[in-house]
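Fill in residues.
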């Protein structure tokens, strides 16, 4: 179950989209649990050698990152491969496990992939939940993608992840092989859960 972080609401989406500043992203370490043998990697990790988790179909890792002076421990699933990599961004209230069954589909065979719990969701820890916004999620995506070394990559996002992916693709089009927006929050009427935060703030809950 995701934490109920107060993410960027519909009223600030338009202004957030106007400017995505270039930021300094620092990778400090990664932490991974493993019992299965390692497999050849499509990419090199910048903070250590990846190990496969007990699920032999993908690795499960925790990356400790500093994004815009906020410490994160990002829980991710990922795998290696020889084809073009794919990055998946989940929606508000969802988790990386939304995309775990990619390993069941032959169409994705051989493609490295990455899915992770956004700050405020799933197993990811965020030192300051008040800092979460759509631009912050874009910065986080850049940090995690940089850690696993995907370049370039296909990008898919759902709902909140769709808006995050859209802004990422807009700011870094040269890095994107293709972009799929699944019910992305690109207009106020799309932002069902975010509107609830606006309509029912904490003091009135």
């Amino acid at each position: 179950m995701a934490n109920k972080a107060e993410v960027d609401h519909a009223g600030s989406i338009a202004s957030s989209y106007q400017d995505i500043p270039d930021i300094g992203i620092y990778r400090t370490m990664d932490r991974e649990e493993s019992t299965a043998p390692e497999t050849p990697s499509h990419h090199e990790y910048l903070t250590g050698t990846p190990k496969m988790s007990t699920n032999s179909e993908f690795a499960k890792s925790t990356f400790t990152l500093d994004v815009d002076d906020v410490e994160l421990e990002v829980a991710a699933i990922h795998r290696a491969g020889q084809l073009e990599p794919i990055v998946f961004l989940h929606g508000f209230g969802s988790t990386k496990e939304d995309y775990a069954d990619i390993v069941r589909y032959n169409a994705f065979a051989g493609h490295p992939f990455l899915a992770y719990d956004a700050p405020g969701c799933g197993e990811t820890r965020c030192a300051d939940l008040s800092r979460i916004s759509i631009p912050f999620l874009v910065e986080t995506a850049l940090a995690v993608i940089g850690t696993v070394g995907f370049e370039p990559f296909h990008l898919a996002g759902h709902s909140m992840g769709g808006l995050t992916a859209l802004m990422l693709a807009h700011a870094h089009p040269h890095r994107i092989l293709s972009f799929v927006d699944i019910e992305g929050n690109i207009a106020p009427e799309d932002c069902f859960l975010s509107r609830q935060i606006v309509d029912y703030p904490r003091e009135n809950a």
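The longest strand covers residues 70-79.
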